[in-house]
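Supplementary notes for students who missed Thursday's class. We covered one full example, reproduced here. Read the sequence, then the structure, then the short commentary at the end.
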Amino acid sequence: MNYRLIKPVTHEAEIKKSRFLAQAAAVDNADAALQFVRQVSHADANHNCWAYRIGQAYRFNDDGEPSGSAGKPILAAIDGQHLDHIAVVVTRWFGGTKLGIGGLIRAYGGTAAECLRLSDTKPIIATVSLTLDCGYAELERLREPMRRMGARIQEEHYGALGVCLHLTLPDKHLERLRQQVADMTRGQGSLKPSNAD
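Structure (token representation):
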């Protein structure tokens, strides 16, 4: 299961006289991630290194640090904590002592990881959009099981013969709800994906 940040978070560390500042926020797309990078980058810093992950899409940038020493460890920190829809920027103000490639990897990855450990997160629950057609009496019997499964009704349309609901449901409950609809409507109701014809 993947998780999403509830609110932005920051963490600061000093490593061999260099100051590192990690900042992380939830983002919904690549444009929002890059906008966050621009927004929190510090012009007076030596490096503003970053990474983001949105589903299967990801990018990272070393911003002048040796290749693979900053952006990739930040992305590894994101993936190590199963976070998604997130951008992380780690800013470095050089303090005069070189860290070497291994030291940079530990500094950037460690600062990002500690920042993310301090964050409040919530699980990302995969949902499916559905259309439910049934009679009025059956709907009343289905409301409680749907509520317990976490269904959220988006729209309700009432007709002479029954009701049509558009709803979202955590996809792990799809088969269970499909069975409930079949049982409670004696096969007369239907539950299908909303984009089906």
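Commentary. Residues 100-117 form the longest helix (18 residues). The two ends are 31 Å apart (CA to CA). If anything here is unclear, bring it to office hours.
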